[in-house]
Amino acid sequence: MNTRADTGANTGADTQATKGANGIEIENLNVWFGEHEDRVDAVRDASLCVPEGGSFGLVGESGSGKSTILRALTGLVPTWSGRMAVLGRDLGRRRDREFYRSVQMVFQDPYASLHPRQSVDQVLGETLSLHGFHDIDRRINKLLDDVGLGPAFRFRYPHQLSGGQRQRVAIARALAPEPRILLLDEPTSALDVSVQAEILNLLVDLRAERGLTYLMVSHNLAVVGHMCSDVAVMQLGEIVETLPVEDMRAGRTTHPYTRHLLQASLGEMAAGA
Ligand SMILES: Nc1ncnc2c1ncn2[C@@H]1O[C@H](COP(=O)(O)OP(=O)(O)OP(=O)(O)O)[C@@H](O)[C@H]1O
Ligand SMILES: [Mg+2]
């Protein structure tokens, strides 16, 4: 293995990842950082598949490679091999304009992801003009409405918003280019428990209304149980099991690590059921 990304098509025709999906296909993905003795193999031989309009969860312990999969997909990590495709198009080393329109990411921490000196109006206005929209005024109001924030929030700055309201703004920004795929990295874990459910319900509604495809990272199995139809369990850079959420809920797992995760979060599952 060298540090050049090999983006050639892989012919693992009978893997999970090839079962007729046009949303996100990842096959035999390896992602690494550094070289020689400093090299970290963050993701090893990972395959997953999210049909268009589907919702897929990635769970696993800290450092298991969940965020790295999302980052490799968005082009933030150049050192990878295997195959990644989005909306039926194979991804190479570089992402094009259409990719950056159709795939958007929502991060864990809305405090860090919003610039403190940009008002909501500026954040949304700049994103819309960057993506070539003209009816910006109307779109800003519509976006605020879509995420449950009225026009009163339009000229506020991040420090004038609660954590939940900030995350709504971050979601509005992600929706601005009219994406088809949202990559969600722990979108509620930085929020107060009381507002987590509100944001998750908003995400559920938005997916249903817009036919969005979600790939979502979470530590919380209850959250994944609520949001996703399938889940991949990661451990030490590998996907050790992929299963339908109903099987996870029912405890029908084959891998001991999945069972361990389930046992650790039985309380959460009960709360989210
Ligand atoms: N830029 C980087 N350089 C070197 N190593 C990195 C880099 N980014 C991530 N890693 C390593 O890759 C591995 C996977 O990290 P990753 O952030 O994907 O984990 P994660 O599953 O998202 O964890 P968490 O649940 O804590 O967010 C970790 O060992 C991490 O230290
Ligand atoms: Mg992470």
Label this structure with key terms.
alpha/beta, 11 helices, 4-stranded antiparallel beta sheet, binds adenosine-5'-triphosphate, binds magnesium ion
Describe the structure.
It is a single chain. The protein is an alpha/beta fold and 273 residues long. Helices cover 37% and strands 23% of the residues. The protein has helices spanning 66-74, 97-102, 110-113, 120-130, 136-146, 163-175, 193-210, 221-227, 245-250, 256-264, 266-272, and strands at 24-33, 40-50, 55-60, 80-86, 89-90, 103-106, 181-185, 213-217, 230-235, 238-244. The strands form 2 sheets. The chain has a 6-stranded mixed β-sheet, sandwiched between helices. β7, α7 (193-210) and β8 (213-217) form a beta-alpha-beta unit. α8 runs parallel beside α11 (266-272). 40% of the residues are buried. The structure holds adenosine-5'-triphosphate and magnesium ion.
